[in-house]
Amino acid sequence: MLLARTFKFPLSILLCLTVLGCNEQAGSDNKPIEIIHVDTITLAPSILRLSKDLPGRVTAFKEAEVRPQITGIVKSRLYKEGSYVEAGDVLFQIDPTNYQSAVNSAEAQLAKAIASQTSTQKAAIRYAELLKKSLTSQEHYDEADSAYQQAKAEVAVRQAALDDANLQLSYTKIKAPISGKAGFSQVSDGSLLTANQSDYITTIIQTDNVYIDMQQSALAFYKIQQEFQNSIIKKPNIPVSITLEDGTTYNQTGQLEFTDTQTDGSTGSVALRAIMPNPENSLLAGMYVRAHISMPEARKYLVVSQSTVVRSQSGKPSVFVVDDNNKVAKKSIILGSEVGNAWVVKEGLTVGNKIVINNLNKIKDGLTVILDNATETDIESDTSIINPGTNSKNLD
To answer: Does the record carry Signal as a key word (predicted)?
Structure first.
């Protein structure tokens, strides 16, 4: 009897503990749902002049490879490497001795031919007078006149030979064909140069202005063309700005000058060329830059801050929108250009949508939230999410 009472007491305690545990579990399952507080911003159009970003390369506005036109020994170099030279400045002097001798010989031959012409001319005149008086035959006059005509032709031949000799002599002074910066000399005093050799002896690059050569896919170029065709400005000015490889913005603005007339069959791209001022010669041929081609005019766009955009595992962008009943809806969007710290929205949103800007990791589609702050935006207040004057980045 005592043994039965001993086991009965602990059993009652165990039952009480079990009931208590069940009550606590039921209470935990019925805890209240957390209320999420969010801030929103009401979407309004922004007036922006977007731009397209393209990789570019600096090309010299004019570039000349200097080569000799005659054969000879370099006597001296007459320019300073890396200096600015004017068109016509003498860069190299070739030993002119042989060419000067050729000129002297041609001059002597010309003088001899002129003397012969003078003599035969006088003879032809005399025979013409005698023929009028019937004191000579027609045959003798014809011979005298023929000799005179041959002498005139000989003078012309000798004059041409002298001109050629003088031209060859002038080539002993190798001159700058264009104005610009002269590069390193590839020859030294005493070097033998040959006429029309393939190797150049120096280069001259004109860099007061430079070309920015770019490549754009044919499809994206077509879209750019549509932008300009739909512009209300006739023949709009197309400014082009650039940034250097380290992100530094170049302090000059150029103009789009040329687009190729056909697509590269191997790459499917179209070549574009802009002219960029380079007054300080800071842009060197061959440099890689990032070019920004501004669209023809400012237009209205819907813009959202990058911090409000969430992406799925596949990378598709979307934003959370709150309706009039404070219910959250997740909307997929199509993004366009990047403008500062914001995105241009091409599709998916409309003016007046309330975009959630905080607590994005706590909300989900269909959730009811409490609005703490609903900011009304307009065109002027968009500067809070867009850095004015920042070039956009093309995603196409």
So the answer is: yes
